[in-house]
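Regression report. Comparing outputs from two consecutive submissions.

Submission 1:
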Amino acid sequence: MRLEGKIALVTGAASGIGRQTAITFAREGAQVFLCDINEEGLQQVKAEIEAAGGRATALKLNVTDEEDWKNAARVVRESCGKLNVFFNNAGILIVKPIEELSLDEWNREMAINSTGPFLGIKYLAPLLVASGNGSIINTSSDAATFGFVNHAAYGASKAAIAMLSQVAAAEYRNKNVRSNSIHPACCATNMLLRDDEDIRKNPGYFTPMGRILEPQDIANLVLFLASDESANITGAKFAIDGGETGFSIGMPLETK
């Protein structure tokens, strides 16, 4: 098992990428703290992990609430004394043109997608240092790499977490704590899934490889970054987008 004996904490664990990654962590031997504002969803994930023989603790957490973060750190410290893996994943998506985006919407996106990850690192870093072998994985986005129409708040918030990730890598370089960011394209999660459309069949959501990302695709990358297999990787940005940000498949230049 690739995470045998490790303690992990996952935010946004009640659904989507967080849920699938938490299940993957547990399957690979980690004891997982499941954090989300959705308590019912947390209990469902916890039950699924335990039914498969894994170990999980459900912990209600509003990532914008500093006291919730202090409490999460306290719970982990009192029960385990350390933390090996922090998947800093919770986020929301607001899609609106700049002129239609309210200040409240902008602030909410920033609070959840940028301030939350900052607070998580601030309060969990001492536990990661205490483990002697810590890994922070921050969920950014392809929208942090180039501009998408109607994604001003989302793109800005995800660009912020990408830089936060690199700064954390620099600050904890001598404390055996690594920090990396992942940059997914559209993924088939509750954030995008709709009752009136099967987005898995809509080419508008496809990567250049011809399909949409699934949560397990991303969980596999996060597992690698959480494991000792990536022991010398820090401060890096990992695109997981089927080549979207790596190359163009536009019309070829005319030849004379």
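Submission 2:
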Amino acid sequence: MAPITEVEGRRLALSNLDKVLYPAAGFTKGEMLHYYATVAGVLLPHLHDRPVSFLRYPDGPDGEVFFAKNVPPGTPGWVTTAEVPRSDGPARMVLVQDLPSLMWAANLVTEFHTPQWVVQAPERADRLVLDLDPGPPATVADCCRVALWLRERLARDGIEAYAKTSGSKGLHLLAAVRDASSGRTSAYAKGLAVEAEQAMPDLVLHRMTRSLRPGKVFVDWSQNAGRKTTAAPYTLRARTEPLVSAPVTWAEVERCREPERLEFRAGDVPPRVREHGDLLAPLLDPEHARPLP
């Protein structure tokens, strides 16, 4: 029987704590839950008021991996949910608003994915995201070169960009925006990707065509669409090792020469948070949001 734990007055059954989820690292479900509890202070603000899509991998990354968008069966009544628009009609989704909800969701073994809008205004984007995805033999070091170009290009429009690892092969750039629809944000992001390709045609690609991707960095602008989601800051990823989508400094991006320089595992992140705080905190401050040109 799963042990019962009380988290801020809520009773949770946390199951299979000794189960190894990441065999390459011997990383267990109990360690995963400990990680999420440790980084909750910086993770929760990035989940707050955003309907969460769960990429679940209950038997580890080598087992079944599937997306869950609707409220899962057996969700406790105290977990906040909200009705959100979908192309196929409204649906009810989970909002992870507090530590008990986070630990309940983490117990399902999940990556956390969120849209670029909050539930109070699903038609309005408040974040811009560019997903830099390297096609081998390109690496995250090539992504860093592209990120630096995009940072300067965004700055010319008065928009400040922040970076995090994808937790996989690439890099995510994020910025706080306002007064823009998801469609307008997508169009602007596509324009940036096209400009980057024109500036660095031997390195950058803005089209999704897989046959064109080897050796190039695909600047995925499409995740700004209202229906799309992106891996949340600080989420663990379903990879062979317990890699995290971790915020990075621009100095780290500038220094990046080898892929391993920008790979962070669960154990790396709490010390980074103690040293830097939340490097993406400006995204949460409305004063930092800028209108698109």
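Expected: both submissions complete independently.
Actual: both completed, but the second showed a warning that disappeared on reload.
Relevant detail on submission 2: The first strand starts at residue 4 and ends at 7.
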